[in-house]
């Protein structure tokens, strides 16, 4: 398991459209997912300890952001042949057990992750109402272990600012997580 950090936010870069199957049986597009005041695109998976450490906070923040007009979508791009825990069936289970308030989508070809430049799980892309990138940082100070209960909610506060002003914060702390398990990295 390789630990990576996300690159610096490429402010203003437009969101990239997609059409991916969700665990709910529906095909979702960028337009289906966006909120009135923005969209949070999250690359996550089921097996990553960094994702597991923040999953409850991620669900909480997605619910709170929805109240501000910012919708969220989670995309799983890992090759499940490398980690069976990331299978579509397990995605369905994880979404149900954690009561995801957002679509959980499978990027089977990994084309969407590559188009976005996603590098790790979790990797967050926060867009304003015009679907221009305004945030590419961490959820909070959590790593493989959850941060303290009173830790600053970096992603939530950044996306609240985006909802209110259309602009993200100048300073952003990169997200850290497990590398995306690319199909071509599979050793046969």
From TrEMBL:
<dbReference type="InterPro" id="IPR036249">
    <property type="entry name" value="Thioredoxin-like_sf"/>
</dbReference>
<dbReference type="InterPro" id="IPR047262">
    <property type="entry name" value="PRX-like1"/>
</dbReference>
<dbReference type="Pfam" id="PF00578">
    <property type="entry name" value="AhpC-TSA"/>
</dbReference>
<protein>
    <recommendedName>
        <fullName>Thioredoxin domain-containing protein</fullName>
    </recommendedName>
</protein>
<dbReference type="GO" id="GO:0016209">
    <property type="term" value="F:antioxidant activity"/>
</dbReference>
<feature type="domain" description="Thioredoxin">
    <location>
        <begin position="9"/>
        <end position="161"/>
    </location>
</feature>
<dbReference type="InterPro" id="IPR000866">
    <property type="entry name" value="AhpC/TSA"/>
</dbReference>
<dbReference type="GO" id="GO:0016491">
    <property type="term" value="F:oxidoreductase activity"/>
</dbReference>
<dbReference type="InterPro" id="IPR013766">
    <property type="entry name" value="Thioredoxin_domain"/>
</dbReference>
